[in-house]
């Protein structure tokens, strides 16, 4: 009985036309073979499983084939059969990871000067060439630059940045792109048909997504799932076989996170853990789904083409509307930190549960990311009308004391009384417009102090009819607290608001510093605590 052969070996392409997803590379190589304009050294780069070694072997057969067919080897002549069987002594495949010393390269260089015994061209395929030592690269330089006519070098690497520039300049470089999910799924369907595997479309798409652009990984996953189950291979069976949760469960987890329902999140996580789901794979799926939500949130409709495929478009669109951009960034960073800590963790389950609870309860964290996520959520709620300030007529009115017990307040200055009756909100863009208008009249160096950016040394806040110039240091206060400067700001602010405004300087360096955005959040919460609860 013949030994079983892995699917990725059994269905390795035997011609350039069989290679999936690398049309730019294969068409160029075929044209060079047809026209006879071959180089003496090639460098194939790209991620794993994209066809670098496969194309190197096809190229080795094509240059020695006795009956080439439009640049493809015939796979029938004695040269092609000898290379396929590995019995051709003139086509050598060398693993640079285990033959990376200078002595190995010297032996190669000494043998390369002899003419081939079985075929026309002696071919050296050096896989993972970046693993060679510096001295080994130096020993290889001369023969790669000026090799004998009967010699062809094909170098392959996944880490191009580790190959010296002196080697790169002596080779023709071909970059292998990641294979698309559609091409991988189509190839998996073809292999499944040949092997009598009942593979449905959902399972093929799932395997193609998990392959992450590597055809070899996709075929290996298909081999594993097909040997572990009988009958139709569905997406759910793929999840069960590989120990992953799947897009539906991940969508439920993020839905509970959006609802801040930590109880439901922990219950669902407990069921997934009892089913034997891999925690690293679970967090990776959550991270991919969160990434898709962030892409849709920031890129809009154009982001649909950039989705990873972890969930359908409808589910992703619904979830994206329930998170703010700040929350999605915080979720991704927390998932990455938790996943990175798995390698040194004593209890992965505890780390994952703590991560999920922190995702559901951002108020448990007082770091900048958590506060920013809560603030951006509140801003989007106000923008969308989910949280709004009550109308002035609905605000509770404090009853006036009885006439006999009325307390007469002390007389206030006319200016302060006018301020108390004035509106307490500035129109959108008021401060930035005021800065732009005042800079033209003030000129340097005073114009350099006025900026609408958060890092500006002075920020303008409108409190009633008083424009407070809140300065972060005493020097800025000294520069702005001048009658002519205040007169210009008062005049321009009054013209913009169509009412009288008084400008004054406030030195914030004499009191503890505060975050303007957090101060705005706390003031809003205190004013409207009866209608808004920030989670």
Outline the structure in words.
The chain has 535 residues and is α/β, with parallel strands linked by helices. The chain has 4 domains: 7-176, Rossmann fold (3-Layer(aba) Sandwich), CATH 3.40.50; 181-242, Helicase, Ruva Protein, domain 3, CATH 1.10.8; 259-380, Zinc Finger, Delta Prime, domain 3 (Up-down Bundle); 423-527, 2-Layer Sandwich (GMP Synthetase, Chain A, domain 3). Helices cover 50% and strands 9% of the residues. It is built from 23 helices and 8 strands. The strands form 2 sheets. It has a 5-stranded parallel beta sheet, covered by helices on one side. It has a 3-stranded mixed beta sheet with strand order 6-7-8. Strand 3 (122-127), helix 6 and strand 4 (151-157) form a beta-alpha-beta unit. Helix 20 (430-442) crosses helix 22 (483-497). The radius of gyration is 35 Å and the shape is elongated. The relative contact order is 0.06.
Q: In summary, what is this structure?
A:
With 535 residues, the protein is α/β, with parallel strands linked by helices. The chain has 23 helices and eight strands.
Strand content: 5-15%
Count of individual helical segments: 23
Looking at the overall shape, the CATH architecture of the largest domain is 3-Layer(aba) Sandwich
**Structural class from helices and strands?**
alpha/beta
Radius of gyration: 35 Å
Mean of pLDDT? 80
Q: Major sheet: order of its strands?
A: 2-3-4-1-5
Q: Quote the distance from N terminus to C terminus.
A: 65 Å
Helix content: 40-55%
Oligomer class: single chain
The count of domains is 4
CATH class of the largest domain: Alpha Beta
Number of strands: 8
Could you give me the name of the CATH homologous superfamily of the largest domain? P-loop containing nucleotide triphosphate hydrolases
So what's the overall shape?
elongated
- Low-confidence segments, given as residue ranges, are 388-408, 412-424, 531-535
CATH topology of the largest domain: Rossmann fold
Note the main sheet.
Answer: 5 strands, parallel
